[in-house]
Amino acid sequence: MVTYALLGATGATGSSILRHLLHESPDSLRVQILVRSKVKLLQAFPDLQTTRSPQVHVTQGTSTDPDALSECLRNASIAFMCVAQNGSPIGTTLCQDSARAIISALQQQQQSEGASYQPCTIVQLRSASMNPALAAQVPVFVHRIVTFCLFANYADIKQACQYYSEAQKQGTLEYILVDPPTLHDANGMQRTGYRLISTEPQATVLSYADLGAAMCEIAHRQSEFHGRAVGVTATGRVHQTWGVLLRHLLEGGSARLREKIAKETVVVGVVCAFLVVLAYLM
Q: Which pTM does this prediction carry?
């Protein structure tokens, strides 16, 4: 039996993956879900407790809880890493903290299983803005605005990916990075079509429903993509919900601007203090 782990099943990405697996799962699939709130999950998926295909096991806990992670990742060949937070708060470390905890749990499995250990493949959601070939398709000023506003979030993901790369070299895991464009229609369930790409032209928008299907396809074809970044582009019409995205950009940009102003104020203050002391000594 194939086992998939799903971390963060109540968010837009995790929900779209779970919805796809429940309707179009491979034969003999077991899905092990880690969520902070089982009640919230069952509210979104009320039939989950009676589902028999695929088999579903739910663990309640955080993405940094060693015991919960160990239970969720046990025997998993794929782990969808969908733990995230809205916006881009300065200093956020959720993604990298989760990555360290995941690696630690897998290292314990690796030590206990010895030569029989089979590395789990982490399917990590990233962004086309972090993929040089895909980001180059976007006007430079747009790319700069987005990376400025989402700086903290991107820095967190970048560090997490670095941890996965180091763990791969130790044989602890494999990883695949998934790079979609802007994501829309979080509550939509209708897929309109997508295609996996590397450097080909990418549409600027993609629905969450198609992202979920794309990530499941990537998991099914995991051996083709180990250690690589995979882009996703829409092939059909997407219901666009820019309001949510613009709000996140505004919140992230405001926080980033405040941080830069605060740093510059400190520098100016230090320089002024130095000049005062220097003038006094002279």
A: 0.90
Give the residue carrying structure tokens 């034969």: 27
Residue with tokens 């998926």: 45
Inform me whether the pLDDT recorded for 279 exceeds 60: no
Task: Please report, for residues 2, 25, 48, 231, 282, the alpha-carbon distance to residue 55 in angstroms, rounded to integers and kept in the order given.
Answer: 10, 10, 9, 30, 79
Burial class of 266 by CB neighbour count within 10 A (0 to 12, 13 to 18, 19+)? exposed
Q: Which domains does the chain have, with CATH numbers?
A: 2-281 (3.40.50.720)
What does the block give as tokens for 255? 């926080």
Identity of residue 176: I
pLDDT single digits (tens) 201-247: 999 999 999 999 999 999 999 999 999 999 999 999 999 999 989 99
